[in-house]
Structure formats: structure tokens, C-alpha cells
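#dry-run=false #mode=assembly
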Amino acid sequence: MVGQQQVVDAAAAAAAAATTRVPVPPPKPLLRTIGGNLMETFFPDDPFRAVARESGGRRALAALRYVFPFLEWLPSYSLAALWSDVVAGVTIASLAVPQGISYAKLGDLPPIMGLYSSFVPPLVYAVMGSSRELAVGTTAVASLLFAATLGKEAPPGEKPELYAALAFTATFFAGVLQAGLGVLRLGFLVDLLSHAAIVGFMAGAATIVCLQQLKGMLGLAHFTTSTDVVAVVRSVVTQSHQWRWQSIVVGCCFLIFLLFTRYISKRKPKWFLLSAMAPLASVIAGSVLVYLIHGERHGIPVIGYLKKGINPSSARDLLLSSPHTMVALRTGIITGIIGLAEGIAIGRSFAMLKSYNVDGNKEMIAFGAMNIVGSCTSCYLTAGPFSRAAVNHNAGCKTPMSNAVMAVAVMLTLQFLTPLFHYTPLVVLSAIIISAMIGIIDYKAAVRLWKVDKIDFCVCVGTYLGVVFGDIQIGLAIAVGISILRILLFIARPKTTVLGKMPNSTNFRRMDQYTVAKAVPGLLVLRIDSPIYFANSGYLRERIMRWIDHEEDRIKAEGLESLKCVVLDMGAVASIDTSGTKMLEDLKKNLDRSSIQIALANPGSEIMRKLDKSNVLRLIGEEWIFLTVSEACYYAQQNCKIGVGMGVVQCVVDPEHMV
Amino acid sequence: MVGQQQVVDAAAAAAAAATTRVPVPPPKPLLRTIGGNLMETFFPDDPFRAVARESGGRRALAALRYVFPFLEWLPSYSLAALWSDVVAGVTIASLAVPQGISYAKLGDLPPIMGLYSSFVPPLVYAVMGSSRELAVGTTAVASLLFAATLGKEAPPGEKPELYAALAFTATFFAGVLQAGLGVLRLGFLVDLLSHAAIVGFMAGAATIVCLQQLKGMLGLAHFTTSTDVVAVVRSVVTQSHQWRWQSIVVGCCFLIFLLFTRYISKRKPKWFLLSAMAPLASVIAGSVLVYLIHGERHGIPVIGYLKKGINPSSARDLLLSSPHTMVALRTGIITGIIGLAEGIAIGRSFAMLKSYNVDGNKEMIAFGAMNIVGSCTSCYLTAGPFSRAAVNHNAGCKTPMSNAVMAVAVMLTLQFLTPLFHYTPLVVLSAIIISAMIGIIDYKAAVRLWKVDKIDFCVCVGTYLGVVFGDIQIGLAIAVGISILRILLFIARPKTTVLGKMPNSTNFRRMDQYTVAKAVPGLLVLRIDSPIYFANSGYLRERIMRWIDHEEDRIKAEGLESLKCVVLDMGAVASIDTSGTKMLEDLKKNLDRSSIQIALANPGSEIMRKLDKSNVLRLIGEEWIFLTVSEACYYAQQNCKIGVGMGVVQCVVDPEHMV
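#status=ok
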């Protein structure tokens, strides 16, 4: 068992340990510290590395490539990739046309605006976006939110022009917000929406979107403008005499067809084309059916006349200084942030699959640009809905070119095919929306959350219930509120644990985690698991005193050696503020009165600097600051007259045997 | 050098290390976990320990003692202690009478209410309070805030009854809030006001209080109702023709006298009585002077008639359902929280000096009770102002009995001596306020903050400027806002650092802190310094990938051995949520593609449980989870085909030599 390494006994180890003290870092120029912190806060991903590497004209090109990622892939674009992108683009166009019309109806906007929104924004994204799979289009959540908030300000039935203008304005503000967040590198604000919150939020939004479809499915002419469950159910039940069986029958048939194709392509991913084409097939079949049996006269409402031609300009419709601007601003902020959070999360997950990186801040600028341009060309809010991205990915897209192909396909539709949608029954659109939304309710994720993290589950369910029983804003407020409260509680009530010595080693570990860890007689080793800030310094002082009281009670009860020294393991204390240094000062004074020594183990450089500046270092005594817990314990045993020793040994490796 | 300990060579050490794996904690019943967490959050100080120890009738007595701390000290109260308390009580009464009148004038309330407020609330506190030094009374900040917020709703000059009723109502709400926070154990919310914020806030409040005194000092009849510097200076300058030299001369004389006594007793703490008695002496001297020279007719305004007799009831004046209730509620919340934060901080600092504990939540209940009772007996908001507590402490108080003595002294004043204050000049009251406020501006603390922690300094200065140039609410909002933003930023941008091996030991430490720490070839050891939450999981993933990129750049540039394994030191990761486990999963998948192994060192039990539940443990492989960084490095060297080895040795102590 005895190898070639040399061993040093405890005394020598202590001597060796004495040579590696914890240093107080040299003072750093203030501006450099601030600069470093700002850099780390706003440019953590060092985005301009590629630009900084080049020089002269090449640097300008690199900068251009940074802003317009298409310059990166276009030069090496191959015919094979083009073919893949054309296939993918046509596929998503066949989904985009019926979905665009459906979501525009959901948002109480003219159906044609859904098609407009699938033409211009995808072109912008093809030039500026860096995700290869994201397919741009309108989303159900934003559409519903437009109807719910803007609809109150300008009922779309009464003032359609004002309503459309408000929608453009909200889209404009959303774009400005998105681009602004990207330029100011504030992408981390979007991270305040946790994954759990997004799961709950999307499920809640999908639920209320499905409920809204009861209007179309039941063929009702009037419907509540509220989105919550109670209002919708009441509206449906009180109008039961108005239900139209024709609408219900047609709707259910198409819904079953759509869900069946979804099921098939989920089981056999190669048949994805089936589910991708199903909505268009339903629209065609439904239109033909209604045309043949004159369904519009028998209780099956249809879309009606759609104007031919591509997007007219809407730049003059923006209401930047009207009494309604605030509503548009609020709606824009909420939908903009939701669109970003969802779009970036989706872009990142697909990028993960193909192992390339999506720069969040750059994506925000792309999203912002496409919404600003969109708001001036009769489009409303666009983002990257999951269903389209999944179809795009399955169809084998290679670059954002598939978005451009989709845009061209939609443009051709706008120019030549709009009259064909005249007889498309609304109930088919409802079926398309429902089948898309059901895929979004990710109950399995909620089960996973429950298993792994109960608080995340609460965030998820709270958000869901907030959206379903309140409204979308309430749900969002709950999500952000619980999430931030959790962070604050973590800081306000950090864990302190008692460490014990692991057998046969110099390591100290939590005694509640490692049953083999043993307390060292006469010593109490405590570990603090968070930065020491104003929000927890009072708590920590009381909690540490309570640990000491408990330990002394135990010592009395068991007749052990009295407590001589408290060792604080500062390894996990990443930061400290003036309340924190004051806390340590108070603690030292308190313990002095009970003749208990205090020792610190493994403080970081920031801690050392602040302890030094605040004179707490001198108060505690530099000789009571140690590199490791075991050194602290060894020193305390030597210097605190602790009778019963314990083999706290420092291991030293012979330098000769090191390479 | 070679001692008796046995050494085990590296291979054996690895074998030994294999026996102390990081355990996955056994599942705990959900309710017990929740119960434990709630207990730790709301009862961190285990307040009922003394009660739980007893049984039967003794337990009831212990519970009663818990609620009414005077039952604890009264049974063993000695004559000597009584004598000390009487001396201290009379001393603080001599300060309380002029201060009470001054602050009531500052709050635009009838001067007599200042005396009322020094009678009933101190009695309540004597029974329920647990700080021995705190002396109850009105505060300048609360008075000024009443004038600033309630004065806008009901100008005291036009509607004095409504104004007084609003003051009682605000006091009532403040009391309910304080008692409620105490009963609900939400004391930690008060901790969200950091020490730095309180320093800045008090200094700002003192500044604007002093500025308000220009009215009295200059003998002005009209004055602005705003508190900010700009408004006050404009009001003073535009009325320069109204300045009265008599008032200025008298005021300056008394101010110099007061500041001189303060200075003396600061230099010689034994002469504290000089500064404690100075305000009363000034009032007496000023009154006599004015009476003799008929100063009230020569530009020196006096208090005028004061009603004799103790507090009338004001329970019927409370406006609990009037249009003004909301203003009173808001004022009550703000003043209540400021009163708590200041009072508890002061109580705790004096308790620290005499090494006893002040229970924050219990103090809140005491404060709440005294304000609720006070609001029904014509008192307005009371707390524990610093100046009185300091005088009380210097005068040698032993128990809260000194508060009761002060109350009796004030009651006698109310019954018999109020007519004597008829000729007290207002300018003397202004001088008393200014001299009290100047002591509160703690510029030295601001300098200390600058030295130790720049962000705390920003909080302090921001709060000060907010109070001085905006108003008290703006200052508070800035204080809480910056403080919370700091916590969120700490979580959103945690530190990650590269660790290196310390020479002659198995410890790994930060290479930027310890210049002697050396990187291990082929390995990258990273340490994460915060919990991994949704707010930072995206950042951490990118930051870790960037460390790896940098390391690979360096390796290429220096022609070193390529990177084979990344070791994450999880020792400082106190907590993880589902976004965090997802991050580790993504990281593992990312690194797998570059054929880099990932290893975790020293994860806590919560981390292990969540990694296990989320299946990330299986993905990484349990054999890649280690107790220490050195074990992880050793194992990686053995298993990742790293050519150039390095003596990473595990030290094992022979159990026979351990006690």
C-alpha cells in the first residue's frame, strides 16, 4: 500500500500551509473594475471577437457579416442546399397560408393581414436572422392578446380602421422594444421568464385560444370578448339555442382528420409531410365542399371576399401621438417580450440539435427589424411559432433561405390565389387552430417539473391558472413575480450547514449529506451557501448564533469538550457588501465575549479585499484566515487548548514526483 | 520529515476515493420538506424554544413572558436598577418635551400632540418591548412625511381637524402594518432596506428637515409645502425681504449653544448630561427671554396657548372609510416601514453592545401595538429615534422601565406645566431640530462605504439625492430598486473562474486569486459561484463554452495537449432549478460532440437529487461525479488518455492514528 510519495507529518504540514496564506488582492484601478463588470454584464458572449480579429477592410466586412448573417452563408450556398430550402419553403408556405388566415381571424383582424404578415417579415428575417430552422409568422398568443387588449380600446366590429391602426402601432412598438433590447444588450431581461413559466404560459394561452374556437366550431355569431374560462363557458352555455349542428359536424370531421395526421406523423416522423400539408388540404376540401353544397346558406359561415395584391403601405396609419398610444405601447411591450422569449427559446433548441450557436441579442435585433418593417407594410406582430419551425426542420431546411422561399410562395398566393379562399369555411380555420394548439400543451413537461423542482412546478401551474382564469397579463405577472420572489428568498434565507471531517481525508463535507462525516471536538465548522448581503446579514448572524447555541446545548448534554472555535467555510460566499462585513464584525465581537475564537476558511479575493478595507481582517486577525477548512481546524486545535486532538492532517506531495 | 502516518499511492487513493462517492439523498416526504423550508423562512430564530421547553402551566407562563417581556425582568427588578432607570427616564423626558413639541410643529400638527405622543406609546413599549435602550418618541422623518403627504390632501392651515384625523388614521395603519408584519413573521422584508440605503436615507431626510427649519430661523410666515432643495431655496430667496433679524440672531445663538454642548459631550462622554439637558435649557432660557423683552411683539413668533391635561381619546376620529383613507394608508405604510427599519436597527446595535438579543419580529409587534394604541389616544406615529436611545443609554438605563418613567414625567408636564411653554420661541425649536439632525448626517459612513463597496456607495448617494432633490418616496424607491437590482444581477451574471492546482497540496483554487495555482494539462477546471437558475442558465452555458473556446485557443497557440475534460466545481452551487438541469444537459451534449468529457465535483445534496430526478445524472454518468476536484482530475487523467500526467494525489490518513 505504501507508495513512493513522501508524507509530511502534521506539524510540517502546518508549516507548509503557513506558506500559502490567503492573499489580499492588490488594488485595481476603479475604472478597469467597472469596465470589466460592464463588459461581463452586457457582452458576456464577447460577440465582436470575430470582428476584432480582422483588420482594415476585412474588419468592415466582418462587421457587416455580424449584422447581416446571410453574408456568411450566401457565398458558399450550394444548389443542393437551395433545393432543400425550396422544398422546406414550399412546405411551410402550405402551412403558413391557412394558419395566417386563421390567426388573423383569431385576432379579429382582416384575414388578408395574416397573409401579408407571412410575406414581408420572413424576407427581413432571411437577411438578418441567424437561426436556420426558425420560420417566421404570426402567433396565436399575440393574435389573441391583440384582440383582448386592443379590442377593448377600439372594438374591431365598430371601428375596424382604428383597430387595424392600433395593431400596426403595437407591432411597431414591439419591434422598437425588441431591437432596443438587442442593441442595448439587455437580452438577459428575457431570461427572467423561466422555462417553467413559459411552459405554463404557453399551455394557458393554448387553452384559452382553443376555448375561443368554440365560437367558430359552434357557429355562433356573438361571443364574449373576455378570454377567461368562466366568461367563455358562460357565453357558450347561455347561447346553447344558437348552436348550429352543420358547423359542429363539419368542424369535428376536419378536427379529427387533422389530429389523425398529427398522430401519424408523430409516430412516423418520416411522414411529416402528411401533417404539414393537412391544413392546406383541409382548407381546399372545406372550400370545395361549401362551394358544392352552398354551405354558406346552411349555417356554415365562410371567409368571404379577400382583396388581391401584395401588402399596401401602412406607415401612415401608425398612431404615435394619439390618446390610444399608451394601450398600443403596453400591448406591444407584452407581445414583443413574449414573442422574443418564445422565438429565441425555439431557435436555441434547434440550434442545439445541429450544434451551432444562436446569438440572443442578434436575434432580438432581427425580430425587432422584421416587426418595424412589418408595421409599415400592413403586417401585425410576427415571431417564430413552434409548429412552423418544427415543420421547417423536418422538411430539411438548410438556411434562412427557406423563409425567403415561403415569402415568395405567399406573395404568389396574394397575387393570384386569394379569390379561391372565398368559400373557405371558418369552422375549418377553427379546427386548424385547435389542432395546432393542442400540440403546445406540454403536460409531460409539467409532470417533469413536479418531479424535479416543486417551486418550478408552482410557477408553471400558477402561470397557467393565471392565464386561464385571469388573463394573459395576470399570468405573466404571476410568472415573473414567483420567479423573482424565489431568487430573493434564496438570498434572504441562505443555507448554513455544519461540516464534518470525511474519514481518511482532509476534506470537510456537509454532515447532513455525508453520514460518514464526523464533527471535530471543540470545533464547529459552518458553511455559508450564498453571498452575504444586506438582505441576509441579519438572518445569518442570528442563524450562526443559533447553530452555536445548539452545539453548546449538545456539548452540555453529552458532556463533551466545550466549544473553542467556530470555523466559517467561506468557499461558497461569492460576494459580500458592507452589511456583510458589519455582520462578521458583530459576530466576532459576540463570540469574543463567549471566548470563542472565529476562523475563516477559503475566502475569495473579493471577500478578502472588502474585509481588508473594512478593517474586519485586522479585527479577526490575519492568522485566523486559512486556505482550507482542515488547516483552520489544525491551527485551532494547536492554539485553542483543545484537549482531545484529532488527526487533521495536511497532505503534501513531494515536488519531485510532480510533472 | 516522514511521520507515522501511512500513505497510499495514487491508485489506492483513487480506489479509496471510489468508496466515498457523492450520495443521492434518499427521498424526503414532501410535506416535511415544505414544513422545514417554511420553518426556516419564517422562524429562523426558533423563537418558541423557551416556551417549548416548559410544560403545563409553566408553558403558559413562558408564552406570556414571550409576548410581554416585562414579565421577564420585573420579578428580579432591584432598587438599584430602579434608581438608574429613574435618572435615565427623567433625562430623556427633558429631551422628549422640547423635541416632541418641535417635531409636532415640523409635522404641522398641534404642538401638544408631540407631548401626547411621549406619554402613551412609551408605556406600551415598556410592557411589550425587548430593547433596554430604545426610548420611544416621534421622529423628524415621520413628522415631515406627514406634513408632505397628508398636507397635500388636507392643508393643515385650512382643515386642521381633517388633517389631525388623517394623521391618526395613518398612525393606525402604520401600527397595523407593523404588528401584522411581526405576527406573520415577515420581518425579513424590512431587511430589504440595506444599511447603505438607511445611511443615505437618514442623511437625506436630515438635510430636508434642516432646510425646513429655515422657515423658523428666518422668521418667515409663509413657506413652500414641498420638501426638495430647489423649492425650499427658491422659497427662501424670493422672500428675502421678509427675513427677520431678531429671529435669526436668537436662533443662531441657541444653535451655537446646542452644537457646542453636543461637541463637548462627544469629546467627553461623561458630560453627556450637558447635551441631554441643553434642549430643555434652551427652551427655558428662550421662554424667559421672550417673556422679559416681549419678543413675540418684535418678530419672534412663539408657540402660544397649550391645552392642559392628558391625552383625549381619538378613536372616533379614525377615517377608515373615507375618500382620504388611501392617502393615510400609503403614508402609514411608508412611515411605518421607515420607523421599523430605523428603530430595529438602533435597538439591535445597542443590544450588540450589551450582548443580548433583540427579536425583530417581537419588536415589530411592540411597535405596532404602541402605534395602534397611540392612534386612539391622540398620538401620532412614534418609533425609536436615535438621539433619545443614545441619551437613554448614556444616562445608564437598565430596563424599558426608563420609558415608563419618561411617560410619567411627560404626564406631569401635561397636567401642570403646559402654560409655561406659552412664550417658547419657535426659533428655539428650529435650533433644537437642526442640532439633532446634524448628528444624523453620517458622512463618515458614506466614506467607509466608498472604500469598501462601490455599489453600496451608489445606493447610499442615490438614495440621498433622491430624497433631497425628489422626495422621500422617490429616495426609498431608488434605495430598494438599486438594492434588488444588485441581487438580481448577482444571480443573472454569476462569476465563473478557472481553478488551478495549488503546489504541494490536493487543493484547487482560483488562478486569478492565487498566482501559484497551476492549470492541469488537458483539463479545464471551472468553478460556478452561484445557484444555477433560469435567470443565469443561458448565460452560464455561453460563458462556460467561451472559457472552453479560450482554453482551446490558448492550447493551440502554445502547442499544448488538447483539452480532454472539463471539471465543474459545484461546491458553491447551492441550488438548481429545472432550467439549470437543462443547462447541464445541453452542456453535456455540446461537449460530447467535441469529444470533451465533463465531470462534476462536490455537488450538494439538493443538486444531486435534482440531477437524479431529471436524469442528467445518468446522462453524465455517475462515475463522473466526484467528492473533490482533485479526485475528478485524477480520474480524468486515468480515463481520458491524457499523456502528460501530473501528481494529483489523494491523501489518506491511517484510521489507526485518528482519535
